Amino acid sequence: MAAVLLSRVGAPTASAAPAASPAFQQDTATYGCVICHADKRRAFQLGAHAERGIRCDNCHGGNPRAFEVRTAHVGRFVGRPTKIGVAQLCASCHSDPDRMRQYGLPAGQLAELRTSRHGRLLFAGNTDVPTCTDCHDAHTILPPEDARSNVYPINIPATCARCHENRPLMAKYGLATGQLAELRSGAHGTALFEHRNFAAPTCIGCHGSHAALPPRVAEIVHVCDRCHAELGRALYGGPHGRPALSGRLPGCLGCHTNHATERVPPDRIAATCTRCHQPESPAAQRGVEIQQRVVQAAEDLRAAGTAIEELVRAGRPVTDERFRYQTALTSFQQIAEVQHSLDLEVLDDLALRVGSISRTIRSTEETAAEQRWEHQLILIPVWFLVLSAVVLVRFKLSELRRQGE
Amino acid sequence: MTRPLAWLRQWLVQVWADLRASTDTGVLAVARFIGLLYGPIDGQARIDEALRKALRYRLPGHVGWRHAFGGVTYLLFIVLIVTGVLLSFYYRPSAQEAYPSIQFIVSQAPFGWLVRDLHVWSASLIVVAALAHMGRVFFDAAYKPPRETNWLVGLLLLFLVLAFGSTGYLLPWDQWAYWTVTEVLDALAGLPLIGGPVVAVLRGDAIVSGATLSRFFALHVIVLPWVALVLLGYHFTLVRKHGIAPPKNPDEASRPPVPFFPHHLLRSFSVSVVALGLAISVAALFPRPVGHAANPYEPPSELVSTWAPVDVSLGLIRYLGAWGFALFTLLGLSLAFLPLFDRSPERRLRRRPAVAALGLTFFAGFVAFWLIGHQVRSVAPGPRPEPERVEPAEPGITLPPAGTTPIRPAEPPTRPPGGLQ
Hints:
The complex is a heterodimer of chains A (about 400) and B (about 425). Chain A is mainly alpha-helical and about 400 residues long. Chain A folds into four domains: about 1-130, no CATH class; about 140-215, no CATH class; about 215-260, no CATH class; about 280-380, no CATH class. Chain A has helices spanning about 1-10, 20-25, 30-35, 40-45, 55-60, 70, 85-95, 95-100, 110-115, 115-125, 130-135, 155-165, 165-170, 180-185, 185-195, 205, 220-225, 230-235, 240-245, 270-275, 280-315, 320-340, 345-375, 380-405. In chain A, helix 21 packs parallel to helix 23. Chain A is elongated, with a radius of gyration of 35 Å. Chain B is mostly helical and about 425 residues long. Helices cover about 65% and strands about 0% of the residues of chain B. Chain B contains twelve helices and four strands; from the N terminus they run ααβαααααααβαβααβ. In chain B, the strands form two sheets. In chain B, strands 1-2 form a two-stranded antiparallel ribbon. Chain B has a two-stranded antiparallel sheet with strand order 3-4. The longest helix of chain B has about 45 residues, at about 1-45. The radius of gyration of chain B is 29 Å and the shape is globular. The chains are: A mainly alpha (about 400), B mainly alpha (about 425). Chains A and B meet through helix 11, helix 12, helix 13, helix 23 and helix 24 of A and helix 4 and helix 10 of B.
């Protein structure tokens, strides 16, 4: 039996998985293990470690050359390491900067893990928390760039959700669930899942990966402004900047939400202000003024877009109009920045620019529409000629009929 | 003071007299020259006699307005040729230039909008006119022997009209044209045996591209017009050879015959100007909108149909489903080939109720589904790839354990098997 298996495993057959490295197939160091653990061999061959010369005994110990369990599982053999054991086992290589340098990998994951809540509970003996293999898999360990990997950007939310959407488990630790649905519904989720925009943050973009923790209140603005740098700068310069930096305001979360990150719609600006400010206060009044301008600018931009669509349908070249529209769009997007600094003067300037460009585009469209209407005037001479011809023919035919009679 | 004026007047009179004399001489010379050529030619080809014979031709008395549809179809064909030639002055058949040249035609070229919309509308109207002509022949039982060959030639001409429209459909090279042709070619490729090779030849590339545009253009303006001219010539020759079919009711046959010239020619003329007026009116009132430039990488959010048969197909598929479309096509084909088997001399409609009902269903159905289909806002060509759904089940989640089933990367967009929906 063993000989049959040996001959099948040992031969470099074409049926081997495509990711299999030839060296591994001919490697006598794994013959013994795969007699029983063929499934593990297949899983392992798909991963990155198989190509780097790592073999079963590097992690599990024992004697890979033995053909029987009794002689194989000997010495420092570890069948299934404990959660802490896994972290220590991985760290035995991955915490060695000298060894990781050649692969361009960082070596601080264990140190990071120890600072996270996962790590602190793990090393306190908790077995609910994840260890390395829970996110990276035990055998099919793939780099984050590989789309099959659990830590590929688009797969990360599902990987975290395995535990964080488990209500009974989260209830034990007083944590809420539902973040995955919230993420999907928000701007970041849309960018990530629908537009495949990997610049959008997944869970680890804000919480960190190995050192995963929720940001503290005073840290929130710093987390957000890593990507939204311009908005952050505008916020710090405005009236909300100081309280947000000192942690007296919940940073960006004062107006936006965390997982279901969304833009404040133009018509909800004033209502957002009155969440904290009294409706009659000067601050709330300023919110109303800002809302009026932003709503008007959004309407102008929409009208310009519709006008361009109409021009396209009328067969007009719209290169100039598209260029103008981009300029208006840039100004409109800058309005978002001003909404954070709350500078009405700059806002007025930008809104006026959007309105002026929109009027130019709309007037081009109106001229084209007038021209289309003028085209229909050709029907007057056409039908005059047609009806004249019909009347004349009728006269002629009746004359012919009279002659015939 | 008066001397120079008098001299100038005398000089102008002299110039005018010389000019008149030379013009008279010129006209005379041209007339003589034509006579010189025409005489011997007429001696050989008898043009004069043929013309006189045609003018003397007398049509049967029962020929009425309903016989005008064939003429209207021919008129629309001529309109399509004239406007097509005018369009080809500006149109450039390449993937880079086709769309801008269409924009130039409708927005810059003098009366380009009229020429273009007249071409587009005539392409739809000619299908309806041809079907109306076929309907007249069908209900009059004018296809019965000895005219069954001409029914077949007419049928070929109808398919030719459809081929003209199909090849012309791609030429605007906007998103609607591009993706409709993509969908239709994909559907055609699904036909067993012939589908694949035919589509490979028509498309000339892995996707609809500049190669396809060149092929469709060549077919549209070089190949099909010659085939049409030959078939039309044959069609008209057969009409003259066998004459107009006898009336359904024998008592109509007793009416006195009508001279072709001037009576019938005048009637044809008035029908033609009204038809032309109608074509210009729909062209001016309902211009064919232009979509965005063709983009093979991004399907449009909706497909707008711009040709009657596409409208009919959309209406059928939307309201009767793919089977409805297939059955309607089958009905049309069975009607087309039914005359070859229906050889009894009976012409009265009341004696042929089943045939009449089927014919009426098809012809009325075509017009009805044209109007219905024109209202259908088609969906995008193919569904966009859905983002992976990993909605957790309540209360815990049951995602597969790590590593066993890696989450699949996005699949390429797939198309619905039914094509246009």
